[in-house]
Amino acid sequence: MTAIESPCILICSIDLTSGYCFGCGRTREEIGAWISMTPEQRRETMALLPARIATMERRPRRETRRSRMARERGLAEN
């Protein structure tokens, strides 16, 4: 069995604005269909990924409990 080329870098988080994964730039649909795509379809998709990633404004950051509580306190004070 041969390995399937993949752009996945194990940072799996979808940008809610663009719908692209912060790690690889693929959409949920592309990620789900990746195994059934032909090598040519995968290469075509991978050619689009650098431009997609460049359009995202920030990298995901998981909110800690402490920062969430501080944010909520700030909202409650306004």
Written account of the structure:
With 78 residues, the protein is mostly helical. Helices cover 46% and strands 0% of the residues. The radius of gyration is 17 Å and the shape is elongated. The model has no long low-confidence stretch (mean pLDDT 85).
Low-pLDDT parts are none
Rounded mean pLDDT score: 85
Elements, N to C (H/E) = HHH
Determine the oligomeric state from the structure.
Answer: single chain
The count of helical stretches stands at 3
Separation of termini?
59 Å
- Helix percent reads 40-55%
Structural class designation? mainly alpha
Distinctive features:
single chain, 78 residues, mainly alpha, 3 helices, elongated
Give a summary of the structure in a few sentences:
The chain has 78 residues and is an all-alpha fold. The chain has helices at 28-33, 39-55, 65-77.
